[in-house]
Design goal:
Chain B: It is found in: Cytoplasmic vesicle, COPI-coated vesicle membrane; Endoplasmic reticulum membrane; Golgi apparatus membrane. Chain B: One of its GO terms (cellular component) is Golgi membrane. Chain B: This is ER lumen protein-retaining receptor. Chain B: It is a multi-pass membrane protein. The complex is a heterodimer of chains A (about 10) and B (about 210). Chain A has about 10 residues and is mostly loops. Chain A is about 0% helix and about 0% strand. The termini of chain A are far apart. Chain B has helices spanning about 5-25, 35-45, 60-80, 95-110, 115-130, 130-140, 145-175, 180-200, and strands spanning about 145, 210. In chain B, about 70% of the residues lie in helices and about 0% in strands. The longest helix of chain B has 28 residues, at about 145-175. In chain B, about 35% of the residues are buried. Chain B is an all-alpha fold. Chain B is built from 8 helices and 2 strands; from the N terminus they run ααααααβααβ. In chain B, strands 1-2 form a two-stranded antiparallel sheet. Classes of the chains: A little secondary structure (about 10), B mainly alpha (about 210). The interface of A and B includes residues 2, 5 and 7 of A.
Chain lengths: ~10, ~210
């Protein structure tokens, strides 16, 4: 899902 | 990882280190809002709980650990080691006016109704407004030490650079996260007035003081 990518950001 | 993301992270790190060094070198946390620092510690703690559940990269893990560690070190300085210098009389912003709406909003507007995701959303929303007690304190006293303004500048610059990072990611990866983008925009806008004063006063060698 798209939002898990955001977790790579701080 | 792109240049905006990396410089954003480094700017964030610079802000945190500047604040810690300022307090350590001057043995004083005068002019610093302990309430904003509590909010930032809450932000990092609720956002980086995924340290326990997923590994992304060595960079990611180390930065998260450093941010959390520095946030609690700052709290230790303000509320314990240098407590006598903490200017609590001027740190009167009511944080419940931030925590309650932000908590409510993170339950209503999130990507997924799960505990970790709600806590992540809560941290994104809270970060966008966590600087308000500090800005309120400066507006109350009418001035800020120059080193404090450097801290605020890098802290504000970090989210502005993330905005460029998100534009980059949208163009080249087709990726966007509306929650982070809207909160990041709000966060950056809150700094605009300060950025103006920083550029027109501090960078010209003057102290940041507000007209009475």
């Amino acid at each position: 899902c798209h939002h898990t990518q955001a977790k790579d950001e701080l | 990882m792109n240049v905006f993301r990396l410089t954003g992270d480094l700017s964030h790190l610079a802000a945190i280190i500047i604040l810690l060094l300022k307090i350590w070198k001057t043995r004083s946390c005068a002019g610093i809002s302990g309430k904003s620092q509590i909010l930032f510690a809450v932000v990092f703690t609720s956002r980086y709980l995924d340290l326990l559940t997923s590994f992304i990269s060595l960079y990611n893990t180390s930065m998260k650990v450093i941010y959390i560690g520095c946030a609690y070190a700052t709290l230790y300085f303000v509320y314990m080691k240098f407590k006598a210098t903490y200017d609590g009389n001027h740190d009167t912003f009511r944080v419940e006016f931030l925590l309650v709406p932000v908590g409510g909003l993170s339950f209503l507007v999130n990507h997924d109704f799960s505990p970790l995701e709600i806590l992540w959303t809560f941290s994104i929303y809270l970060e966008s407004v966590a600087i308000l007690p500090q800005l309120f304190m400066i507006s109350k006293t009418g001035e800020a030490e120059t080193i404090t303004t450097h801290y605020l500048f890098f802290l504000g610059l970090y989210r502005a650079l993330y905005l460029f990072n998100w534009i980059w990611r949208f163009y080249f990866e087709g990726f966007f996260d509306m929650i982070a983008i809207v909160a990041g925009l709000v966060q950056t806008i809150l700094y605009c007035d300060f950025f103006y004063l920083y550029i027109t006063k501090v960078l010209k060698g003057k102290k940041l003081s507000l007209p009475a």
